[in-house]
Write a structure and sequence with these properties.
Helix content of chain A: 40-55%
Order of helices and strands of chain A: EHEHEHEHHEHEHEHEEHEEHEEHEHEH
CATH architecture of chain B: 3-Layer(aba) Sandwich
Structural class of chain A: alpha/beta
CATH topology of chain B: Pyruvate-ferredoxin Oxidoreductase, domain 3
Strand content of chain A: 15-25%
Largest interface: A-C, 38 and 33 residues
CATH superfamily of chain B: Pyruvate-ferredoxin oxidoreductase, PFOR, domain III
CATH class of the largest domain in chain A: Alpha Beta
Distance between the termini of chain A: 42 Å
Helix content of chain B: 40-55%
Order of helices and strands of chain B: EHEEEHEHEHHHH
Structural class of chain B: alpha/beta
Shape of chain B: globular
Mean pLDDT of chain B: 92
Number of domains of chain B: 1
Oligomer: heterotrimer
Strand content of chain B: 15-25%
Low-confidence stretches of chain A: none
Number of helices of chain B: 7
Chains: A alpha/beta (about 350), B alpha/beta (about 180), C alpha/beta (about 260)
Number of strands of chain A: 15
Strand order of the largest sheet of chain B: 2-3-1-4-5-6
Number of helices of chain A: 13
CATH class of chain B: Alpha Beta
Mean pLDDT of chain A: 96
Largest sheet of chain A: 7 strands, mixed
Number of domains of chain A: 2
Chain lengths: ~350, ~180, ~260
Amino acid sequence: MPERQLITGNEAAAEGAIAGGCRYFFGYPITPQNKIPEYMSAHLPEIGGVYIQAESEVAAINMLYGAAATGAWAMTSSSSPGISLMQEGLSYMIGAELPCVLVNMVRGGPGLGNIAPAQSDYWLATRGAGHGDGRCLTFAPFSVQEIYDLIGQAFPIAQRYRNPVMILADAVLASMREPCVLRERLDPPEEKPAWAVGGRRRGRQRNIVNSLWTDPPVMEEVNLRIQQRYEEAAQNETRWTEHGADAPEILVCAYGISARICQTAIEHAAEAGIACRLIRPISLFPFPTEVIADWAQRVKKVLVVELSMGQFIEDVRLAVEGACPVEFFGRTGGVLVTPEEVAERIIEIA
Amino acid sequence: MRQEVFMAGMGGQGVLLAGQLLAQAALEAGLELSWFPLYSPEVRGGRATCTLVIADGEVGSPVVGQPGSVILMDGIAVDNHLNRVRAGGLAVVNSSLAGDEIKRDDIDLVAIAATDVAVELGSEQATNMVLLGAYVQASGVVEAQAIEDALHRVLPERHHDYIPTNVAALQHGAQLAAEQLQ
Amino acid sequence: MNTLATTKTIQPIYTRPDSLTDVQMRYCPGCTHGIAHRLVAEVLDELDLKDRTIAIATVGCSVYAYEYFDTDAVQAAHGRGPAVATGIKRCQPDTIVFTYQGDGDLAAIGLAEVLHAAARAENFTVVFINNAVFGMTQGQMAPTTLMGQKTTTTPLGRSVEQGGYPLNICELLAQIPGVAYLARETMTSPKRVRHAKRSLKKAFQVQAAGLGFSLVELISSCPTWWHMKPLEALQWIEDVMVEQYPLKVFVDKLEQGEQAEKNL
């Protein structure tokens, strides 16, 4: 068995990014993700990388914009209120077709909220990315190992689709320790993308990184190009896992930490004689619509479990398209649900 | 095998360290596990809790409503959490700080005057180790030796002077638990 | 003797700098943005920096700067130029990076970014155009608008009660140790233009030498929103604006370095 190390989700995000080729980090302190910038400040300089503590999340995302414009593999991390501040920069990055990776360790809100786990940034993550028609490709890991693995994959995905990629987790995943198998650290590719600024020009056309297109048909063309990439991402990057019964009565849909809780909840439900299948989207945008639509034809009801007032449920409903009733169970404001409570809800609706 | 243990106490009692040691021991034993801490916002003196789930397969939920077992290090922890233990489960309780009103007939209850024992051993701070030793003895989730080994991995080098006291505390706790469970 | 008849070829003595594109600028007649662009481009040419320069256009009248400078370029969000420049320069330390920012962009929405870039001694250059007004959005009050100055949002003139006091950016930045070159110039006469160019050149030399943050504030005219003829606008700079914003070299670490070398 390869050597496993007991590390937190925050450490997995930081080391996973470095292992995936990230060499530049720009961030601003906010709980519960502080261990990520702390780790980066200690380890990036050791390998010739750069860590900068920005004066705000607004500055951090714009430093990332500059770094990304040079073709560097760069990232930031934050938590809910900080991600709100980064929306402007994300919109500009999408408009300028720049890749980057960011982590959101979601905490309770709205407002200053608290530092407890929540999933109430689902809309911010999957619909957000500021003004305009852009979106973040969004992935939601549910274990420390998966945080480590996904963030490493996020960098080439961001480069391929020239778009920000968000890793969406929460305060539990950030602070929990689990065994994690670490890989050797990869170097980012030496060759810069053709569109990157910097270096010596020596005869090549000058590169301009820009999101200003005053002529509407030209702006529309940019949007169509971005949309085309989202469609390609839907083909290539849609990910989910399935757990539980093969002939279920109830289909449970949950992502991230809620899906972990539901893994145990559907076992409790099975003990009570109710067969459930859990579908866990790993990619939230693109969303695994088809698999949910498919199972919705074959179950009595769908139960959506999330740590919010009901955001993720909208995508599930769009997938189910009225094929069966979609029920909801969630807590918000930093309150967790327990497997026992979820099991009770399953029994109630069955 | 899937074992959940919830630990609670006041900040500074070493709730999280006890959890980390058990987690490290489970890791070394090749088991799957998930450990998650929850503290109140004060850096010192607040409440501290952690949940550890150990399994020989998929861990599933790191969050547990009714844990199979608990380690409760003071009276507030007992008041808040003793009634959450699943019937047939196990509670290891610090009777030094929890008074006499510790009652559950439907679980294995190990009440140990851990703070008194730790003080006798010369370090009140070893209270968590007395309780952890008792827990490992009563639950059998990992070998006692695995916790002693974990001390070397988890404690920073500058604290290795405390290891002998901690080992003594673990052993005392184990012995007291064994006597109670006989 | 007819000199023209004896001249076989006509030698150009004044051409467009290599670092400017052929694109026609969209600035209003009489605006000094054009002079400022040209001066920056001449400096890049003279220091042979063009091929490794990245220009950062910001938001304001100079939003199209990336069309005019014949260099790699990045368009930044309003006020964020210094943060973008930080990201670029930290990833590509061998490049020459400059932001080109107006007073709304730099002194209002982007004040935090420019101050902290200076505090971190980021090694890039800021060209700061101060014309005491928001130009692109049609003449509203800027942080640098003078007391009593009429704008479209101070129709009775700037008052302390409503708009507070003008912000002197160079005097603020002069307090920060990370600043390696800092000067305020204007472009109201050939002599002033030469001085402005000298300061811009110093700023880029300071950057090329890796000495830290450099900024040149150029007091500029906005005939359109000052409602003046171009010459009146230049005169108003001389008569009024330089009272509030004295022309001065505040910090010159290149000079200090040379001085120290001479003393050795």
